[in-house]
Amino acid sequence: MKTVWISIVAVSVANAVIKAAGPVLVGGRELPARARGVIGLLAPALLTALVVSEVFGEDGRVTVDASALGVLAAAAVLALRGPIVLAVAVAAAVTALTRALA
């Protein structure tokens, strides 16, 4: 148990150092346009990676199940310019219906 807490403290300190490094290194200077562009794309790319790994990954292998169908249904609603709330509701309904029928 002691090792777990040491790991938690170490990760917390590393997180604080990484978060503080940006403002310290930049020091109030304006970032170049290319760097701002890359930073702006990091959050959507990370979110996409998390969704894909959660939906299509299981025990280190690729799987397609009811949740994948729900995500595809939500993507269809969003592609048709539907609201996000409707996309979430459709995804939940398709996932639940698929699991009920399987």
In short:
The longest helix is centred in the N-terminal third of the chain and has 25 residues, at 2-26. Helix content is 79%, strand content 4%.
List the helices and strands and how they pair.
Blueprint: H1 2-26, H2 33-56, E1 57-58, E2 61-62, H3 66-79, H4 84-101
Antiparallel strand pairs: 1-2
Helix pairs in contact: 3-4
Q: Care to describe what's here?
A:
- It contains 4 helices and 2 strands.
- With 102 residues, it is mainly α.
- Strands 1-2 form a two-stranded antiparallel ribbon.
* Topology as a string of helices (H) and strands (E): HHEEHH
Distance between the termini: 41 Å
Helix fraction? over 70%
Low-confidence stretches: none
Give me the secondary-structure category. mainly alpha
**Number of strand segments:** 2
Largest sheet: 2 strands, antiparallel
Q: What would the principal axes of the Cα set say about the shape?
A: flat
- What's the alpha carbon Rg, rounded to whole Å? 20 Å
Strand composition percent: under 5%
Instruction: List the total number of helices.
Output: 4
Mean pLDDT: 90
**Largest sheet, order of strands side by side?**
1-2
Key structural traits:
single chain; 4% strand; two-stranded antiparallel sheet; 102 residues; mainly alpha
